[in-house]
Structure formats: structure tokens, C-alpha cells
């Protein structure tokens, strides 16, 4: 009886090993198919790879239709592969048909890859970026299926480059910003009238041709910058005017932004804020000369 038990155990181990090795070979075939597709994405656009996408999908589906012991996280990897292939299929076939944020709200993970800004009283939409966003998402998920992902990589992907789309909230913010812009435009029409001059002590014109990001403040209140007017705008103040959270891709703000205060050119002193990345400056009243160590501009 003991011998029979030992023989049965040995047979089970042999069968289990053969199954494990079979699963290993099957998964390597799936990996290779996904790796070929991922490599092709570096050379070709997704819409040129429909056959490669279909071939990889067939391999993933065949593997997922039966139970496996290898790899241990095969369920997670198969799910990542299927989601990645879905995104690549959309990039190859359907992305150009997506024309509004309502349609994109069905893909919350992809919206985290898309920059957003107000266009008047609604959220601006750029069809040209949709295909690229689905391609980036699909490529990342395919790579995750091939090699797995560390906990930090998973957290970075969960956070995304931009917040998840909240269409109702962001549309409401655009409507408020548009109303503020209309009020600023009405003030601008009165900029040269005696009544306007009497109302505001400081009238600040800001030229921002490279589109630096920033938050203007007038008398301690943040002033929204309209999406369509970010390259040239003005703000008025009675006590003080500032620019905060200024970030310029092309260099330091002193080289990218010009300021006119009450008709006179003003060269503000720029300081790095606590972030070590963004700059801030006082526009009015004109700050006194500051002696500082190092390069503060």
C-alpha cells in the first residue's frame, strides 16, 4: 500500500511538472507574440499593425481559455494584455471617430494621458491626440503583460499624467472661467477711460508668447487665464498684483514674459518658490531692489 501511494505521488508530480512545463512553453509563445507587437509599435503607427494586433489577440485568447499554473500571476497578465490589445485596436480602427469628451469618458484610464483646457465655456477637445493616447495606453499594458510591473510602476500608472476626467466638474469650471474672462474683456474696453483709471491703481499688461503656465493674483485673489488668451492678458489691482506658480518650458520667466505696468515696461524680479521648479514675482507695487545671493532670475 505504501509503495502504491509513493508511485501515485510520483506520478502526480511528473504530471504536474509536465503541465507546468507545457504552461511555460505556451506562455513563452504568448510573450513572443506580444513582444513582436510591442517592438513593431516603435517603428509603425497602430493603424498599420492590424494583423499583428489580431495575431497577438488570438494567442492571448487561446492561452486564457484554459487553466494554467505558469506564470503565477497569469490572470493579471492576461487581463493587462487584453486591455492593451483593446486600446491598440481602438487606436488602429476607431480613435478618429471619437469626437467629444462624452465618448472618451468610457475610457477613464486613457483620459489620464490627455491634457485638457477650457475652450470658451466648455472643455477643449483635440481629436489629433486621441490615437496617440490609446497607443500609449496599449503599449504600456502590453509591456506590463510581457514583463510584469513593479508596485511603483502600477502606482504611477494609476495616477496618470493628468487627473481622471470629471466632465461635469471640469465643464462647470470652464463656464466660471469664461464668465471671468468676459468680465476682464469688459474691463479692457474701459481701460483708457477716466472712470477705469479712477477705479484701478495698477493696470498690468502681460505678454506670454511661449505659453508659460502661471496663476495671476490681483489684490490677493487668483485671476483665471482664459484658454484662448493665455499668451496675452491683463489684470488690474488697487493694492498689489503678483504672478505665482510660473513654469516655462523654454527657460526662465525673465526670458519669456514681458510686463507693462501703467504703460511703463517693468522687469520684475523672479524667485523660485518652495517647489524648486516654479517661479513667482511681484508686479505691483514695484518691488524695491533686492540684494540676493545666487541667480534668482
Task: Explain this structure.
The protein is of the alpha+beta class and 297 residues long. The chain folds into 2 domains: 165 residues, no CATH class; 95 residues, no CATH class. It has 10 helices and 11 strands. The longest helix is centred in the first third of the chain and has 40 residues.
Q: Proportion of β residues?
A: 15-25%
The total count of strands amounts to 11
**Computed Rg:** 29 Å
Indicate the multimeric state: single chain
State the low-pLDDT regions, or none: 288-297
Q: What is the terminal-to-terminal distance? A: 88 Å
The helix-and-strand class reads alpha+beta
Give the number of helices: 10
Strand order of the largest sheet: 5-4-7-11-10
Please outline the major beta sheet.
5 strands, antiparallel
Q: Whole-number average pLDDT?
A: 79
Overall number of domains: 2
Q: Rough shape?
A: elongated
Element-level helix/strand string: HHHHHEEHHHHEEEEEHEEEE
Please bin the fraction of helical residues: 40-55%
Q: Which features would summarize this protein structure in a list?
A:
11 strands, 297 residues, alpha+beta, 2 domains, four-stranded antiparallel sheet, 10 helices, single chain, disordered C terminus
Question: What's the layout of helices and strands?
Answer:
Blueprint: H1 2-41, H2 50-64, H3 74-94, H4 101-104, H5 108-111, E1 118-119, E2 122-123, H6 130-147, H7 151-159, H8 167-189, H9 194-199, E3 202-207, E4 213-218, E5 221-222, E6 232-237, E7 241-247, H10 253-256, E8 258-261, E9 264-266, E10 271-272, E11 279-284
Antiparallel strand pairs: 1-2, 3-6, 3-8, 4-5, 4-7, 7-11, 8-9, 10-11
